[in-house]
Amino acid sequence: MNSIVNKKKSKNDSIDNFALFGNPVNHSMSPNIYKNFSKEQGIPLKYKLINVCENNLIKEMELFFSLKNSKGANITVPFKETVVHICNSLTDRAKVSNSVNVIKKLSNGTLLGDNTDGVGLIHDLKTKKFIDKKSNILILGAGGAALGIISVLLEIGSTVFIWNRTIEKAKVLEKRFKHLGDVFYLNFFNKKIHEKKFNLIINATSCSMKNQIPDFPKYLISSNTYCYDLFYSRKNTVFTKFCKKNGAIHCSDGKGMLVSQAAFAFFLWYNKFPNISSSMDSVF
Ligand code: ATR
């Protein structure tokens, strides 16, 4: 009896531990996604959700990473930018977006911050054939979510337009990413908004979380416009419903991006790339 308990204990002791830090985290699909990757790749791991607030984020992260088996973590809203300053080193992707959604504990115990949101989004958009090499993309929103995706969209040759309720924030992002490609802020008074045909509209606002639609000219949506919501829910989001109602045919929420960014995070941890489409089928 004792030896069975000990065997179980020593097996558990050697299992890699991961966690998601954020607020809120209880709705997260990440445990299911990583459970699937773990099964598919034959790598046992434990994944837990840690709800934190600004005041105890550092303490909770230090506590988690002080454990020998804690190998990595994911970071979600609203801490992706804060964690940039907690990591010991950053990948280029994390530096450019100035936000971290995944951490790997390196063999010397230091924390490497990465950002897989952008590559996860591109992977999903390509899989769905929502972009080609020269897409004109309208991003709604200029908060953390927009920040994480602009550089990768520019890198693949897209022209990016940013529309935001607070114009000043869109201007700041234009300035910040101008050196990487064609990026422009837009508002009602800018004639580009009336002249342009956008191939893809991405909702990077937090409106869907509140069941709201950002205020933007709905005549920009047509049957040829792909519409993508970074937010996801079990059913259609309010944004994808709104776009369909206004003539869009191809709409998607962010489930594919969620699983893809997790696959790139898993790759950072284990150098092995899980099967995204089979995980999509099992998780959702
Ligand atoms: P973050 O911390 O990432 O900035 P946020 O404050 O929830 O998150 O806002 C994310 C984005 O959603 C912002 O671009 C925000 O617009 P503002 O910059 O004007 O605040 C946008 N957003 C949130 N609620 C909105 C609403 N009701 N209508 C339009 N945009 C909204």
TrEMBL record:
<comment type="function">
    <text>Involved in the biosynthesis of the chorismate, which leads to the biosynthesis of aromatic amino acids. Catalyzes the reversible NADPH linked reduction of 3-dehydroshikimate (DHSA) to yield shikimate (SA).</text>
</comment>
<feature type="binding site">
    <location>
        <position position="76"/>
    </location>
    <ligand>
        <name>shikimate</name>
    </ligand>
</feature>
<dbReference type="GO" id="GO:0019632">
    <property type="term" value="P:shikimate metabolic process"/>
</dbReference>
<dbReference type="GO" id="GO:0004764">
    <property type="term" value="F:shikimate 3-dehydrogenase (NADP+) activity"/>
</dbReference>
<feature type="transmembrane region" description="Helical">
    <location>
        <begin position="137"/>
        <end position="163"/>
    </location>
</feature>
<feature type="binding site">
    <location>
        <begin position="28"/>
        <end position="30"/>
    </location>
    <ligand>
        <name>shikimate</name>
    </ligand>
</feature>
<dbReference type="InterPro" id="IPR006151">
    <property type="entry name" value="Shikm_DH/Glu-tRNA_Rdtase"/>
</dbReference>
<protein>
    <recommendedName>
        <fullName>Shikimate dehydrogenase (NADP(+))</fullName>
        <ecNumber>1.1.1.25</ecNumber>
    </recommendedName>
</protein>
<feature type="binding site">
    <location>
        <position position="92"/>
    </location>
    <ligand>
        <name>NADP(+)</name>
    </ligand>
</feature>
<dbReference type="InterPro" id="IPR011342">
    <property type="entry name" value="Shikimate_DH"/>
</dbReference>
<feature type="binding site">
    <location>
        <position position="117"/>
    </location>
    <ligand>
        <name>shikimate</name>
    </ligand>
</feature>
<comment type="similarity">
    <text>Belongs to the shikimate dehydrogenase family.</text>
</comment>
<dbReference type="GO" id="GO:0009423">
    <property type="term" value="P:chorismate biosynthetic process"/>
</dbReference>
<comment type="pathway">
    <text>Metabolic intermediate biosynthesis; chorismate biosynthesis; chorismate from D-erythrose 4-phosphate and phosphoenolpyruvate: step 4/7.</text>
</comment>
<dbReference type="InterPro" id="IPR022893">
    <property type="entry name" value="Shikimate_DH_fam"/>
</dbReference>
<dbReference type="GO" id="GO:0005829">
    <property type="term" value="C:cytosol"/>
</dbReference>
<feature type="binding site">
    <location>
        <position position="254"/>
    </location>
    <ligand>
        <name>NADP(+)</name>
    </ligand>
</feature>
<dbReference type="InterPro" id="IPR013708">
    <property type="entry name" value="Shikimate_DH-bd_N"/>
</dbReference>
<feature type="domain" description="Shikimate dehydrogenase substrate binding N-terminal">
    <location>
        <begin position="20"/>
        <end position="103"/>
    </location>
</feature>
<feature type="binding site">
    <location>
        <begin position="164"/>
        <end position="169"/>
    </location>
    <ligand>
        <name>NADP(+)</name>
    </ligand>
</feature>
<dbReference type="InterPro" id="IPR046346">
    <property type="entry name" value="Aminoacid_DH-like_N_sf"/>
</dbReference>
<keyword id="KW-1133">Transmembrane helix</keyword>
<keyword id="KW-0472">Membrane</keyword>
<keyword id="KW-0560">Oxidoreductase</keyword>
<keyword id="KW-0028">Amino-acid biosynthesis</keyword>
<comment type="subunit">
    <text>Homodimer.</text>
</comment>
<feature type="binding site">
    <location>
        <position position="101"/>
    </location>
    <ligand>
        <name>shikimate</name>
    </ligand>
</feature>
<feature type="domain" description="Quinate/shikimate 5-dehydrogenase/glutamyl-tRNA reductase">
    <location>
        <begin position="133"/>
        <end position="207"/>
    </location>
</feature>
<feature type="active site" description="Proton acceptor">
    <location>
        <position position="80"/>
    </location>
</feature>
<dbReference type="Pfam" id="PF01488">
    <property type="entry name" value="Shikimate_DH"/>
</dbReference>
<feature type="binding site">
    <location>
        <begin position="141"/>
        <end position="145"/>
    </location>
    <ligand>
        <name>NADP(+)</name>
    </ligand>
</feature>
<keyword id="KW-0521">NADP</keyword>
<dbReference type="InterPro" id="IPR036291">
    <property type="entry name" value="NAD(P)-bd_dom_sf"/>
</dbReference>
<feature type="binding site">
    <location>
        <position position="230"/>
    </location>
    <ligand>
        <name>NADP(+)</name>
    </ligand>
</feature>
<dbReference type="GO" id="GO:0009073">
    <property type="term" value="P:aromatic amino acid family biosynthetic process"/>
</dbReference>
<feature type="binding site">
    <location>
        <position position="261"/>
    </location>
    <ligand>
        <name>shikimate</name>
    </ligand>
</feature>
<feature type="binding site">
    <location>
        <position position="232"/>
    </location>
    <ligand>
        <name>shikimate</name>
    </ligand>
</feature>
<dbReference type="GO" id="GO:0050661">
    <property type="term" value="F:NADP binding"/>
</dbReference>
<keyword id="KW-0057">Aromatic amino acid biosynthesis</keyword>
<dbReference type="GO" id="GO:0008652">
    <property type="term" value="P:amino acid biosynthetic process"/>
</dbReference>
<dbReference type="Pfam" id="PF08501">
    <property type="entry name" value="Shikimate_dh_N"/>
</dbReference>
<keyword id="KW-0812">Transmembrane</keyword>
